[in-house]
Write a structure and sequence with these properties.
Length: 318
């Protein structure tokens, strides 16, 4: 018998994420990085190994400083800019390939930056569940110097992972490329674990996960999304009234429990419809719909395609 998975393990089971380390940037000030918007199935990340950088606010507000040990996730995949903050014209960067990785360097002699740049990749149809429930832009401060309250062992694990990424990206070892991508994949899960424990994330899935009173409902929806859940049932799991449950869920997640449940169900359905042996009716029943017609309407509203068209499109991609 398989063990019951926690919500994060279940999320990553139904929305598999692969990490890819693209660059190690080693710059002296003045420097600047301008990165275009990412594809629909990507979340860019940056890890500051040493030095610091300023992340520009796309709305024109104050820039946000990120320092050594910080991990920047851009869940919306939007274009973004990092720079040293001097305002001076940056030195041009040049690339060289070494140690299974591309290094980007410049001739600047000011304060040094050592930065890992990569992306987390997933099937675009999973973007709604991944991008939609994570903070648009989040800085996870693994050093613990900014008042984070994550478990000490999680912080130690994350620091160890970053140290291994630094080491593997600096030497030309057998299997190094595979190791870097495997470590990047692990980075996604460990960063989400750390952020959910720190309690510093804005409203979203990480804040919800870090609020123990709502944990039973979160676990239930991920573990058994096909169950005929109602708001009173979910509230009873959390030992609270329906009104209190609805208010707290909206406050912590920024969206309703029904929204999250539907997104989990449609993500599962899109996965199942890729299997030739799975009939539309069987998939509808598995994700909690009493009729195939109701499921087809919900699927088209959510995905933008009928189940049949989605299945045909998925077949051409495999």
């Amino acid at each position: 018998m398989s063990p019951t998975l926690d919500w994060l393990s279940r999320l990553l089971e139904i929305t598999p994420v692969r990490g890819r380390l693209d660059l190690r940037c080693q710059y002296g000030a003045p420097w600047r990085i301008d990165q275009d918007a990412s594809a629909a199935g990507e979340i860019p990340y940056h890890v500051v190994l040493s030095g610091s950088a300023l992340l520009e606010d796309p709305d024109g507000g104050a820039a946000q400083r990120i320092a050594a040990g910080d991990i920047l996730l851009l869940a919306d995949g939007g274009a973004h800019s990092l720079h040293d903050g001097s305002g001076a014209r940056p030195y041009p960067a040049r690339n060289r390939t070494a140690a299974n990785l591309i290094f980007s360097e410049n001739a600047g002699e000011g304060d040094r930056l050592d930065l890992l740049c990569g992306r987390f990749m997933f099937t675009p149809v999973h973007a709604r569940l991944l991008r939609g429930y994570l903070p648009t832009r989040s800085v996870v401060r693994s050093s613990g110097e900014h008042g984070t309250a994550a478990k000490p062992e999680t912080g130690a694990d994350l620091a160890g992972l970053l140290a291994l990424m630094r080491q593997e990206s600096g030497v030309d070892s057998l299997g190094g490329r595979a190791m870097l991508d495997a470590l990047s994949t692990a980075l996604f899960a460990l960063t989400l674990r750390f952020a959910s424990e720190s309690g510093e994330a804005p409203a979203g899935l990480l804040t919800l996960a870090g609020y123990p009173r709502l944990a039973p409902a979160l676990e239930a929806m991920f573990h058994d999304p096909g169950h005929p859940w109602t708001l009173p049932l979910l509230a009873s799991l959390c030992n609270m009234s329906r009104a209190t449950f609805v208010r707290l869920f909206q406050e912590k997640l920024g969206r309703s429990a029904s929204d999250l449940l539907t997104d989990i169900r449609m993500t599962l359905a899109s996965n199942e419809l890729r299997k030739p042996s799975a009939s539309t009716g069987a998939v509808a029943d598995m994700v909690g719909y009493q009729s195939e017609a109701a499921f087809q309407r919900a699927f088209k509203l959510h995905i933008g395609l009928t189940p049949a068209r989605w299945r045909r499109m998925a077949d051409t991609e495999t």
